[in-house]
User: What shape does this take?
Amino acid sequence: MDDTPWVGPLVASETFVVRDPHGNEFRVAISPDGVTVNDRPIRIEAFEQGVIRLTGSRAATAYSVTEDGEQWVFLDGEVFRFEIEREGSRRKGGAAAHGSLTAPMPATVRRIETQAGQAVRRGDILIVLEAMKMELPVRAPADGTVAQINCREGELVQAGQELVELQP
Assistant: This one.
């Protein structure tokens, strides 16, 4: 894996597989004609650094950060840390298999909506971050129990910092 973000200038044709923390695979094809994800055309507009508008079967705004060779995307209240597999590359070991939710970018913790020991359902808002003058809800990626909260309201957190640990 290199430091090249998965969304960037379209200068060459390339196809690669992207895996999200849940094990889902996405076949991304980039060409001078545009981008397709799993053979569906996607229009990508960059508004400012890290803010991307995606338009396909629906429209969505995503926030993206590349750090230490990993691509972090905040979309629809979930944080995705992507592993990019290109021909001849080897997979990194399970980066998100430990059950923790991490900050997608430098942000301030505005609200903690859960507590240790609490049962949560997929989609529940656990923490609300503020970055780039926007509130970013961090949602539970699956049903489980909050094992530990590793931040506090008002704290400035860095990209990749563990915020909440979940148990199945």
